[in-house]
Amino acid sequence: MTTAAIDARAGRRCHNALNSLHSTHYFSPDLGRELGALGVTDPRAVNFAVRAAALGPVGAGAVTAAFYNYKHDLVARHVPAVWETAAPERVLAARARAVDATLRRLLGDEALTSAEMSEAAALALRAAEACSRSARPLYSAHADLPVPDAPHLAFWHAATLLREHRGDGHLAALMAADLDGLEALVTHTATGRGMAPKWVFSTRGWTRQEWDAATDRLRGRGLIDDAGELTERGAALRDEVERETDRLDAAPYAHLGAEGVARLTELGTAFARTALGAGAFPADLLGRR
Q1: What 3-state DSSP class applies to 113?
Q2: What whole-number distance in Å separates Cα of residue 287 and Cα of residue 198?
C-alpha cells in the first residue's frame, strides 16, 4: 500500500487521539510521586528526565535539540544533573509505574483489561512497524525499548512511538518554515490549539519579554498581526507545516490501512475522551491567552 492510499487528515486525526492519551502522564500526580521517590522533585526536571531517558544519560545540548522549543538555559539547569540523581533506566522504570497508575485511575481497570484495549494495542503496534529511524532521535530511542506485556502499557508504548515519530518529523517541517522553537510556540498558540502563554513560560523556560520579541519578529515577517493573531500568510504557513508533517508521518498509517486507521482512531478517541472527562489535563492548558 502506498502512502497516497491514506488521507493525510486521517493519519493526523489518529495521531491526535493517541497523543492525547500518551500526554496524560505529563500532568499526572503519579509521575511526580514516582520521580519524587527517586529524588527528582522539580516538575521541569521530571519532564526532561522522563522524555529524554530513552536517549540515555545525554547532556543538555542533545535534549535542547531533540525537544526544540525549550529554552536551552532551562534545560541546562537540570540536564545532565538529573542523571546523577536518577539514572535513565531507573527513570524509565518509574515512568512505567506512573503510566500504569495514571491509566488505571483515568480509564478504570475494566477498560485496561478489555478486548478493545488489546485491539488498540495491536493496531498501534502494527502502525509503528512502518516508522523510520532516520533523523528521528526521540522515536528511534524509544523504539529500542521493549514492548510491555500488559495491553494498556503496550498501547501506551505504541502511542509513544507514533507520537515521537511524528514529532521528530514536525521539527524538520518547522525548520523548513524558518520557525525557531519559540516562534513555533507563538504561532501554534495563535491558532488556538497550542498551550496558553502562562504554560509556555512555566514549562519551556521562556519569558514574557522573549515571547513578545518573537511575536515582533513574526509580525515583521507578516505572519502575526497587531492583535497577536495569525495573518492570512501566517495561517497558510502553519497549514503548510502541518501538511509537511503529515507527509513525513504518512508511512505508519499507510501501513495500517484505511480500515485499521479508522478503527484505531475510534478506539483511541474513546479512551482519550474518558481520560479527559476524568480530569487528565488542566482546564487552562490551551488557549491564546
Answers
A1: coil
A2: 10
DSSP 72-84: HHHHHHHTTHHHH
DSSP labels, 195-258: B-HHHHHHHH---HHHHHHHHHHHHHTTSB-TTS-B-HHHHHHHHHHHHHHHHHTHHHHHHH-H
Q: Which three cell numbers stand for residue 143?
A: 523504539
**C-alpha 94: how far from its chain's center?**
19
pLDDT tens by residue, 197-225: 999 999 999 999 999 999 999 999 999 99
- Beta-bridge partners for 195: 286
Residue positions counted in the chain: 289
CA 247 from chain center: how many Å? 18
Peptide bond into 148 cis (omega under 30): no
Rounded alpha-carbon distances, angstroms, from residue 175 to 68, 134, 168? 10, 16, 11
Angle between the N-to-C axes of helices 115-128 and 151-176, in degrees from 0 to 180, rounded to the nearest 10 = 40
Per-residue model confidence as pLDDT tens digits over 141-175: 999 999 999 999 999 999 999 999 999 999 999 99
